Amino acid sequence: MAEPSATQSLVILVDCPRLADPLAELELQVETELSLAALLSPKLTRDARAIVLSEKAFAEHDVGVAIRRLRETWPLVDIIVWGHGADTNFVRTALQAGAKDVFLTGSPDICARGVLNVIESQQLMPRAAKIGYERDRAAVFEGMLSRSRRMWDMFDVVSRIAGTSAAVLILGETGTGKELLARAIHRLSKRKGRFVAMNCAAVSEQLIDSELFGHVEGAFTGAHRDKEGLFRHADGGTLMLDEIGHIAPAAQHRLLRTLQEGTVRPVGAHTEVSVDVRIIAATSNRLEAQVEANKFRQDLFFRLDVIRLEIPPLRERPEDIVFLFSHFSRDFSRQYDVPRPEVSDLFLDRLLAYDWPGNVRQLENFTERMVLTHMHDEQVTADHFEKLLPFQRGKRAQASPPRKALHDTPAQDSSADAAASPRGEIDLSKSLEDNLRPSVERIERDYLEACLRQCRGRMNQAAELADISRRTLLRKLKQYGIDKAVFRKRDSK
Does one domain contain both 252 and 206? Predict the structure, then answer.
């Protein structure tokens, strides 16, 4: 991956003209706004990493109100105040409103280096900070929240095909929101009928025909009256068949005929009934594999796979993890009328490092559990993260031990412990974990140095290569006393 471009390190200055040159010397792109009012009025359409305002910029604005408005509009952009000469009350108000830092120095060079440190310490990696400001949208599509470019590309396709009658196949892991997407397609289609959903995995082979096509009275034991079936119930609307791969083979043939002819024949009836139903199928499994294994009809697969929408799992769109976590924590705090939890940086590191196998649904449940169980006067830390995932914790540790070591080694465990325990020496008075720690730290240090050497000291590339956040990398370098500049100097020789 290439070193981030200047547009990925954009700093917007408000009434700070003396900072422009020092920031440019630090290879940061700089743009200026004439006033705070100019910044607050239009929607920001640039991929800014930070906004720096001088104390003078607030001359006609309430400090707390203005900063809160900026934070609400651009939650991933750090707000920095250059408050040379500011009093204690100004500093306190700015920080309480959400400013990342207030620099009281009169030196533009020192302030510029402080801005660079803030950017290098940002929790999300540069690709996550580029959250698509060029789109004139509020990150909401038909009730679905996302700042992922991949998700918005898919939403664009949905907008184009919703008004057609083409069948749609939605692929996505459990918890990614397949039914939400199907409902969005139905709403945008403006079809006058109902939206009806059925989970094919939850209906037995004996009942699938009756559920889909209906039956007449007396068709079988227990059929005491006519039943119209889901196709007729959704007439004029949309029928979503979730987990379509679980539908019984015998029912696949009858489903194919219904899709081809636009008619259904209730069980026990002698006549067919015309229906106008749009089909949206969804699955968390690869239907192609089931076709190859002769478990799913190929002709039915082709009939369903007209428009394919693939929802990426949450782990592949890290820019959405913190965004959705913030949204869920705010909503649950309001719903249960409890204070919104304050979380530590290490907790956010764990949030981003975790794979979220249950995707958005799991993150939502996790956040609700956190809001309801945390002590309101206590900061939520990395230790709390483990306790909030009691089932997944063991599974996670077995699945990805190298990555776990990078993220979970406590910052206070210094490399001095490694020196105290020579390689190969076992101290039975200590636990297995304590005996392992020196070796883990030695391997971790060597690994990070190898990443820096490979990337020639470039922090963004090294964090990407190590599969950790930039902040975690900075913390590890400080822990082990590794100087990133050494690797840049080697490259220049």
Answer: yes
- In the numeric block, which tokens belong to residue 3? 């070193």
pTM for this model (two decimals): 0.56
Q: What is the SS3 assignment for 295?
A: coil
Q: Which has the minimum average pLDDT: 18-22, 49-53, 71-75, 409-413?
A: 409-413
Same domain, 305 and 327: no
pLDDT greater than 80 at residue 28: yes
Distant-in-sequence, close-in-space partners of 28: CB < 8 Å, separation ≥ 6: 6, 9, 10, 11, 115, 116, 119
152, 323 Cβ separation under 8 angstroms: no
Measured in degrees and rounded to the nearest 5, phi and psi for residue 248 equal: -65, 145
State the amino acid at position 246 in one-letter form: H
Residues 175, 358: contact at Cβ < 8 Å?
Answer: yes
Q: Which residues does 10 contact at the CB level (< 8 Å), separation at least 6?
A: 28, 29, 30, 31, 46, 47, 48, 49
**CATH classification of the domain holding 455:** 1.10.10
Q: Are residues 122 and 155 in the same domain?
A: no
- Nearest-angstrom CA–CA distance, 64 and 69: 9
Domain enclosing residue 471, as ranges: 422-492
What the block records as the tokens of 49 is 């990493």
The predicted-structure confidence for 411-463, as pLDDT tens digits, reads as follows 344 333 443 344 456 666 666 666 677 777 888 888 888 888 888 888 877 87
Residue type, 487: F
